[in-house]
User: Fold this.
Amino acid sequence: MSKSRPKAPRPPSPELRRRAEDRLERRRTAGPADAGDDPRRLVHELEVHQIELEMQNEELRASRREVEAGLRRYACVFDFAPVGYFVLAPDGTVGDVNLAGARLVGVERRNLVGRRISLFVAETDRTAFADFLSRVTAKSAEESETCEVALLQDGAWHRDARLTGTMLVEPGRAPMLLLAAEDVTARKRAEAAVRDESRHKDEFLAALSHELRNPLAAIRSGLYLMEHAPAGSAAAQKACAVVDRQVGHLTRLVDDLLDATRIARGKIELRRQRVELGDLVQKTVEDHRPAFEREGIELTASVARQRLWVDADPTRLVQALDNLLTNAAKFTNRGGRVEVEVRNEGERGAVSVRDNGMGIAPEVQAHLFAPFRQGPQNVERSRGGLGLGLAVVKGLVELHGGTVRVASAGVGKGSTFTIGLPLEEAPEEASAPQDAAVPSGGDLGHAGQRRCRVLVIEDNVDAADTLREALEIAGHDVRSAYDGPTGLARAREFHPEVVICDIGLPGISGYDVARAIQNDRALGHTFLVALSGYGLPEDVRRTTEAGFHRHLVKPPDVDQLEALIAEACAPERPHGVEARPQS
Assistant:
């Protein structure tokens, strides 16, 4: 076989030749003249070739600098990319890794090279990861595969990562695998939180359905008994008491829902005053004592001798205590005991509600004050509720600058809830404690009260008629209307002293009815009561601006309405009574 001859050098390009000739001409112009024709031509050729070589070297050096700069840029991008990159052999051995990749597994870069990447994948994900590597190595360089795995650090879960693998194939080199690893821990946690929240909402809706259906069933049965039992009989009276209790229960459920929403939106407005903590707690305990006696639960109270003054809204503080006492009764069996204690803890007054009931598991205590959270329930939900009571307690207490905490030794070992409130100086003239409850009207509306003309405007026919009949039983002259225009026309015919008006009416709204009555000279002194399903401060403001004197939240308490009617019909009532919300 003949040996192949070496290749002749590549002739210079015409452009390069021209540039070399130009450079040589410049040199000759600057130097001494040549002598002789042939030697001069030879020298000329040699000098041209020399300059060509110099220029080629310059171009090579420039190209090398560009390549080196590109490599530095690539190394910088690789090293400092926000996504982790691993260069792997087909068996998963790490050949190179950037800083983000090393941080993902919590190991320095130099300690990762030469190790199997599978060592940093959670045991439960290793089979899926091996299948992923096999799929990547079987594909071409233009195709990629993805999977998600949990990564380990020091043998424990560290981060969740989404992996994208692509083959790197270069002529003359062994194939490698480029693995891009994106940290998806935050996304996975957010997805888990969404699923958890969805589950809690489903549980809440199921609980709400249960909690609504139970009193509705009792109300329906009670109404049947009231319809069929002899009027005034023991059965009818018992049924009436059942309906009254269950309506109160439904009202409390709705109030808890509204209060939880108002607290979350920062819509609760406190009406603070100086309150003596011991007196308020004693009265609240006494209000609950009959209910505890019916359930066969002992209720005791221990109040510090020192008077403890707090700056608080007494109604909201009583509401928080009501919820704690109701909660204690719910989770304490017959024959159990609930103790309420008021004490001084330095700069704070503390109220503890301690029971020897079911107790609370440690894992439940962590989220006990979160809305819609409860401990495990049996299928009957005999300890039911909406999981809002304690959330409302926490929100109300924190609005007062206080704290609420829970302690329990575990299931079956009882629990203690403690409210802490900042103490204040005693008022200069500490008067007798005020009743924190909303006035009920007492015996107002019974025999002896002045008969008043009352107009009820309500688009719910059943609600309007039953309220009219209740006020008629109390001795008042009552008319009703079921829409705005009819109500306004009836007011001009009837000249009522009191108008109880719904806000959302057909035809014209309750706001428009109130404005029209206020602008009518013949009706200008009419006492206007707004009746609404909404009770936020802005709702009260809108009814006040429309001319209403009072704002009641549905369902209205008839005794409370009788008290308002007595106030409205009192001869000494001043004109333009200021509106204030009542519930």
